[in-house]
Design brief:
4 domains; transmembrane beta strand; alpha+beta; 19% helix; 43 strands; TonB-dep_rcpt-like; 10-stranded antiparallel sheet; 5-stranded mixed sheet; Immunoglobulin-like; 729 residues
């Protein structure tokens, strides 16, 4: 756009050689802490300035298409463990993916602003650091490296004396051998709270590519936000004086990572390294690997499914502290939730972490408090020797006598619950303990010697039938909810039909991929699912009595041969080009998409070749270098379009659902229909849709689309079919 070109030209004018003179002046006037370091400071700044200036020039000299992962996550302010995380992908040609507010605004308002009850943090980008106003308000000095920055030399900067607004101070770290800029680390000063100043920080990484271009492959800002003010005692005291209040904080991290870079010719440029988590999940209750366990970093979308050997591997992970959790139907049947395991991931390392379902003794005593020193918990089940049914109400007695004690032995008594489970939370370790189970005339027992702190299991079988009320008691059904998602992308799968066996109704997943069964008897069920794009498959779930169950089924996408009745009812149409000849439409085949994919940034670049279509790229407000959405419009659509109601394009739009969304986005574009499903609004979807997944694109012009789709076709229709969806040229 013209506006973007003008702004880029203005930014280029800031890269003037006068910056060196400004540094020399700043040395004499501002950096007076160690005046003897002036020459070295000037040399370091000159090297840093080259890289900073190049990050803006590289996007002009070397057209690069960035694939960026933007992550927003909430982090525990004390432990720094990730609580939850939202990730989105962005792609497109950019001068610089990391852009801050203008330097003049930051100098006038500060780097932290208060908007209502929200703190807004700004980080300095290359343009800010190179600006005259930054050099006028900050001084530089040489920073010796710490152990963390071994092999580097730092150029520290801080605000000059007298600055009262929220400011930044930090260090530009450079390689001591090559003098190349590696990373910028900064913190915030002049903040009203010491705790906020302690928590708030930022980091920007720099990298020089083999062809000489400089990029910012990764950046991060940590922003604490106050949650609630409480008295230091933790109790609410009316009229408490200011200054006696302690504030809890929520830590929010904004992270940007360049996942991939492509040149205009389609060549891939190496980017940053990421962390990897791998390991094995083991089931101690069965002494074998737990195949099919789903391992996940809690609160995030990063997950993997263990293979037949229990092995898992999660790659491309950002730096951070996480809680690792895993789920499996086996855990549901045991009614046990493993304790999350905390890990710290640091790129480019691969961390190996073993996960396990503990032994039955640990599971059955999970409700016990930690056993005192010199003691151990014991649990088990009591079943009938005829049929193996659990025996509720059985008296279980533990008795022992410590060495040197005389007289009667010490005894504890427990009773089995309705599942036949008994438990002792604290029995003496290292001495002989006699455990006996008795029901009426039937009894059995064993002598045990427990190990301190280790939970143990001992089961008993009695030659007794369950009480009549237990045999006649009807099983309590459970509410079952579940979700069907793509195994690769974790996107929900709507419209899938699931069958759970005889006696249970067939259900269909909604657009969120969810399903619900209100009353399911306890037991293990085979689940059969069917979907027109994912084919058919089976899984198994276990439902416990009276316990609500939640399941997630992850389905891989694969091509399938559907039976004749499904083919007859599917959306497969006659030849694409035959349809195009019969109506006013244009078709782009898979082969043409493959030919153009290397230079195309998004679907809009593909459809530019269709006569009558105009493609606009709409940036985020105030940031012309970022792509918010893609708008595909029909040229010359006017009152002659059937279904338009005689309205010109520049007339006010009626607030129908479709047109209201168009007005909100600023795009009066063609309707996008993906695999026969309308996408509204489509701007961001068009930006992010992977070209690799597209099988064909058909543009139906307004003259034909309005008669086929009504108001939805007023501005034309773009029909996109993905691979394996059944429609292709």
């Amino acid at each position: 756009a013209d506006g973007a070109t003008v702004e880029r030209t203005l930014r280029a004018s800031a890269e003037h050689v006068q910056l060196e003179a400004l540094v020399a002046t700043a040395e004499r006037r501002r950096c007076t802490v160690r005046p003897t370091e002036g020459a070295e400071t000037a040399t370091l700044w000159d090297e840093a300035r080259k890289a900073l200036a190049s990050t803006g020039q590289s996007g002009r000299q070397y057209p690069l298409r960035y694939e960026i992962r933007r992550t927003t996550r909430e982090v525990d302010a004390d432990t720094r463990v990730v609580r939850n995380e939202q990730t989105r992908m962005q792609s497109g040609y950019r001068v610089n993916p990391f852009v801050s507010a203008p330097a003049e605004q930051l100098a006038a308002r500060g780097y932290v602003e208060t908007r209502g009850d929200t703190l807004v943090f700004y980080g300095p980008d290359a343009a800010v650091l190179l600006s005259d106003v930054f050099l006028d308000t900050h001084c530089f000095r040489v920073q010796p490296p710490s152990r963390e920055h071994e092999g580097m030399v730092g150029l520290a900067f801080e605000a000059v004396a007298g600055r009262k607004l929220p400011e930044v101070q930090g260090v530009l770290w450079m390689d001591r051998r090559t003098a190349e800029l590696r990373v910028l680390e900064y913190r915030y000063t002049n903040l009203p709270s010491e705790r906020v100043a302690e928590l708030a920080e930022g980091r920007v990484e720099f990298r020089r590519l083999p062809d000489g271009a400089w990029i910012i492959p990764r950046w991060r800002i940590r922003m604490p936000t106050p949650r609630e003010a409480l008295p230091a005692t933790g109790a609410r005291v009316p009229g408490i004086e200011r200054g006696l209040v302690q504030t809890a904080y929520t830590m929010v991290e904004e992270i940007g990572e360049v996942m991939e870079i492509r040149t205009a010719e389609g060549a891939v440029v190496p980017t940053v390294a990421f962390a990897t988590l791998s390991g094995v999940v083991y089931d101690s209750t069965r002494a074998r690997p737990l195949a099919g366990a789903r391992v996940q970093l809690a609160g995030t979308q990063h997950a993997a499914v263990a293979d037949a050997e229990g092995r898992f591997r999660i790659a491309q992970l950002p730096e951070g502290a996480y809680s690792v959790v895993f789920t499996h139907p086996r855990l549901d049947s045991l009614a046990f939730v493993p304790t999350p395991v905390r890990v710290a991931l640091v790129p480019p390392q691969e961390l190996r972490q073993e996960l396990a379902v503990p032994g039955m003794g640990t599971i059955l005593t999970a409700s016990c408090l930690p056993a005192p020193a010199g003691s151990a918990p014991l649990a088990g089940t009591v079943t009938s020797t005829t049929g193996g049914a659990p025996l509720p109400g059985v008296a279980v007695r533990a008795s022992w006598q410590r060495p040197g004690e005389t007289g009667d032995s010490t005894r504890l008594l427990a009773a089995t619950d309705r599942d036949g489970v008994y438990r002792f939370c604290s029995l003496p370790a290292g001495v002989a303990v006699r455990v006996e189970a008795r029901l009426a005339d039937a009894h059995t027992g064993a002598e045990l010697r427990l190990r301190g702190g280790a939970a143990e299991q001992r089961d008993f079988a009695l030659a007794a039938a369950p009480p009549a009320e237990a045999r006649l008691r009807a099983a309590v059904p459970s509410r079952v909810t579940g979700r069907l998602v793509d195994a690769t992308t974790s996107r929900p799968i709507g419209g899938a039909v699931l069958r759970f066996g005889p006696g249970l109704p067939q259900v269909t997943t909604d657009r969120r991929g969810t399903f619900t069964l209100a009353a399911v008897p306890p037991g293990t069920y085979g689940v059969e699912f069917r979907h027109d794009r994912y084919g058919t498959g089976t899984s198994r779930i276990t439902v416990r009595e009276g316990v609500p169950a939640e399941f997630e089924l992850r389905v891989p996408r694969r091509a399938v041969m559907l039976d004749p009745i499904i083919v007859t009812a599917s959306r497969v149409q006659p030849d694409h080009y035959a349809r195009a000849r019969r109506r006013a439409s244009s078709v782009i085949s898979r082969e043409e998409i493959d030919r153009r994919q290397g230079a195309a940034r998004h679907l809009g670049d593909i459809v530019r070749m269709i006569p009558g279509l105009a493609v606009r790229e709409i940036p985020y407000p105030g940031n012309p270098y970022s792509l918010k959405e893609v708008c595909i419009e029909a040229r010359g659509v006017n009152s002659s379009v059937p279904g338009s109601g005689g309205r010109a394009l520049d007339a006010p739009l009626p607030k129908s659902t479709l047109e209201a969304s168009m007005a909100e986005s600023g795009c009066v574009g063609a309707t996008l229909i993906l695999d026969d499903v309308p996408i509204r609004p489509a701007g961001e979807f068009l930006r992010d849709l992977s070209l690799f997944d597209i099988e064909s694109i058909e543009y139906v012009r307004p003259v034909d689309a309005a008669s086929m789709y009504g108001d939805m076709g007023t501005y034309g229709v773009i029909r996109v079919y993905t691979r394996g969806s059944g429609s292709r040229p």
